[in-house]
Write a structure and sequence with these properties.
The protein is mainly α. It is built from six helices and three strands; from the N terminus they run ααβααββαα. It has two domains: about 35 residues; about 120 residues, Arc Repressor Mutant, subunit A, CATH 1.10.10. A hairpin with a 2-residue loop joins strand 2 and strand 3.
């Protein structure tokens, strides 16, 4: 950092203050360091995955939608799909339009609510998702197992899932 460290560190960082303050300050520092490490790791891995040559048929964002729909054989409403992928609603709508045009997803009105649209994976979309998915899974495994043991990967999976559940619960409040 050009202007120095963002948080005071070391034994004398909170000299003269009580242990509770020191503990709270340490928790804030550790939480922010963990967030930054998680954010940077995700960003660097995402760039590495995007640079791979497996994305000839679909982009990473398109694959994310196909993958999400592959887990839901009955399809998802646009709202449900939007909650499951990291795209804005307008971007997702344009992406779905492109995928419909390429025959990878289907779109139809929901029978119980004609205002809502259900998006489903077509047979071709399923084929593309599986083909790209196999290559992507190998790439993810290669990258992650090069840095982490199986036990560490299990711990990372469990911690990330707990964070995702907590964030989802906070969003519902």
């Amino acid at each position: 950092m050009c202007a120095g460290e963002p948080f005071a560190t070391g034994a004398g960082a909170v000299a003269g203050r009580g242990g509770a303050h020191r503990s709270a300050r340490r928790s804030v520092r550790i939480a922010n360091e963990a967030w930054e490490a998680l954010f940077r790791a995700q960003g660097r891995l995402l760039h590495a995955f995007e640079a791979d040559d497996i994305w000839q048929q679909v982009s990473l964002s398109e694959y994310d939608v196909l993958y999400t729909l592959a887990k839901e054989p009955n399809g998802l409403s646009m709202g449900e799909l939007n909650a499951s992928v990291m795209l804005t609603q307008p971007t997702l709508s344009r992406l779905i339009e492109r995928l419909v045009g390429r025959g990878l997803v289907g779109r139809e009105r929901m029978p119980h609510d004609s205002r809502r649209v259900c998006v489903t994976l077509t047979a071709e979309g399923n084929r593309v998702q599986r083909m790209v998915g196999r290559r992507h899974a190998r790439l993810v495994a290669d990258r992650l197992t090069a840095a982490l043991s199986d036990a560490e990967l299990e711990q990372l999976r469990d911690l990330a899932a707990r964070l995702a559940r907590s964030a989802a619960e906070d969003g519902e409040a």
